[in-house]
Amino acid sequence: MADWVTISSLATAGGTLVLAGATFASVRSANRAARVAERSLLAGLQPLLTTSHLEDPAQKVQFVDGRTLVTPGGGGAAEIADDAIYLSLSVRNAGSGIAVLHGWRYYPVRMRALNEAPALEAFHQFTRDIYIAPGDVGFWQGSFRDPAAPEFAAARQAIETREPMSVDVLYGDFEGGQRVITRFAFWPRETDNGWLGGTVRHWNLDRGDPR
Fold first, then answer.
1. What does residue 13 show for φ and ψ, rounded to 5 degrees?
2. What are φ and ψ of residue 125, in 5° steps?
3. Model pTM score
4. Is residue 6 exposed (0-12), middle (13-18) or buried (19+ Cβ within 10 Å)?
5. Cβ-Cβ contacts under 8 Å for 185 (sequence gap 6 or more)
6. Are 45 and 97 contacting, i.e. CB atoms less than 8 angstroms apart?
7. Are 96 and 134 in contact, with CB atoms under 8 Å apart?
8. How far apart are CA 211 and CA 48, in angstroms?
9. What's the pLDDT tens digit per position in 102-138?
């Protein structure tokens, strides 16, 4: 005679196992869909700064003391005063999200690409918020205001001797995420006293790099 109690228990166990497998597959599929949706959302917010084009219009970049630098498309500007050094660079947001600039780090030499991102401790903070819309042209600006500081003397010498310079710019999306460091270069322009700009490398801080 068949043991219906045993058969019933096995059937219940089998049904429970099938239900658990279906639930696991459903949860896994939902998690995968959520990750895809999150990546799509972040891609829509992601900024990416590069140097602007030579044909882009010049911009008037004003500093807190009223000083203004005329910064050409595809290039930068640098001026030396008795108590301050002013720098600016024309950049373009090639990403799909608004770029919010957080900080910068200057080098009085031409810096090449590195395998690791620069340390954040050495970055200067901006005295105002700088936003660059997707597909639009904006600018980076920085200044040194302590003539006794080593950075002031190094920047002054690089500008006066027309040596290549570099700057790392830290920025992210308008929600404070997807932080990126982009390294830009200044090259002296041979035709006049101006400067050309170039993009050296990008580092992602909040997710893996593409290389």
1. -65, -40
2. -90, 150
3. 0.80
4. exposed
5. 110, 111, 164, 165, 166, 197, 198, 199, 200
6. yes
7. yes
8. 16
9. 999 999 999 988 878 899 999 999 988 899 999 999 9
